[in-house]
Design goal:
- By secondary structure, this protein is mostly beta strands.
- It has a domain of 156 residues: Sandwich (Jelly Rolls).
- It is built from 2 helices and 16 strands.
- The strands form 4 sheets. A 7-stranded antiparallel sheet has the order 2-5-16-7-8-9-10, with no helix packed on it. Strands 6-11-12-13 form a 4-stranded antiparallel sheet, with no helix packed on it. Strands 1-4-3 form a 3-stranded antiparallel sheet, with no helix packed on it.
- This is Beta-xylosidase C-terminal Concanavalin A-like domain-containing protein.
- InterPro entries: ConA-like_dom_sf (IPR013320), GH43_C2 (IPR041542), Glycosyl_Hydrlase_43 (IPR051795).
- Pfam families: GH43_C2.
- It comes from Streptomyces coacervatus.
Length: 241
């Protein structure tokens, strides 16, 4: 995919998404939804993060929800998520997600986050497995300024949409959302001026079990049995390889 950037620069950017061991803990916070008192979400579910442990409808990826990386008690009515390893790593990811129950639906989260380098990323994901996912995330550009971008992985092929990145200025709190409509996935964001689309419509079938199944020389390489999930995801890739 041609993003209109220097190939060497793009290779360095993509290298930041490879497996690394975090040496620092950069946290993203997910506040309770900003709804009027007593008002439920229309035709949906809202988690106010007002309990000391995660609701059982949330899942974590390959590790239990222990206080060293996820907590609901450090700040009332907030989920605090410390950055973990990249998706190619089989240990140490920092994802809290919910299973997608229908081909049509939406997910929204408000995040408070400020990256210190392009190796810090936090946002929301639509995820099937380590080789098939989409990630709307806040990171830092070459000048260290916060920017919102979309990354995607399709059967292990990674790309980052730098050309359509949205500069965030000094904003620390913003809403992120995604919409699933059958085979189409769209991301959106709101930093105070209302919802805006980011990027082009995406192929939601990448998140399906049928797409995730891979064969090599007639042998099964990967099985697609987990189903799709959506939720917040945070990476801290500042460690050594």
């Amino acid at each position: 995919m041609d993003l209109g950037v220097d190939p060497a620069h793009q290779a360095d950017r993509l290298a930041a998404y490879r497996p690394r061991v975090p040496t620092s803990l950069l946290a993203v916070e997910i506040p309770a939804p900003d709804l009027p008192a007593g008002e439920p979400a229309a035709d949906g579910e809202v988690d106010g993060f007002d309990q000391p442990t995660l609701d059982p409808r949330w899942s974590t990826l390959r590790r239990p929800a222990t206080p060293d990386w996820v907590t609901l008690t450090a700040r009332p009515s907030h989920l605090r998520l410390h950055g973990g390893r990249s998706p190619q790593s089989l240990v140490g990811p920092s994802m809290v997600a919910r299973r997608v129950p229908s081909p049509d639906g939406a997910f929204e989260a408000t995040i408070e986050y400020r990256p210190r380098s392009f190796r810090h990323l936090a946002g929301i994901t639509a995820y099937h497995n380590t080789r098939n996912w989409y990630f709307l995330h806040v990171t830092a550009d070459d000048e260290g300024q916060a920017v919102l971008r979309v990354a995607r992985c399709d059967r292990g092929e990674l790309s980052v949409d730098e050309a359509d990145g949205v500069p965030l200025g000094e904003a620390r709190r913003l809403r992120l959302g995604l919409d699933l409509q059958g085979a189409v996935l769209r991301f959106r964001h709101d930093s105070g001026d209302g919802w805006q689309r980011i990027g082009s419509p995406l192929d939601a079938t990448v998140l399906s079990a049928e797409h995730a199944e891979e064969f090599e020389n007639g042998q099964i390489r990967a099985l697609g049995f987990t189903g799709a999930f959506v939720g917040p995801w945070a990476w801290d890739l500042t460690g050594g390889a």
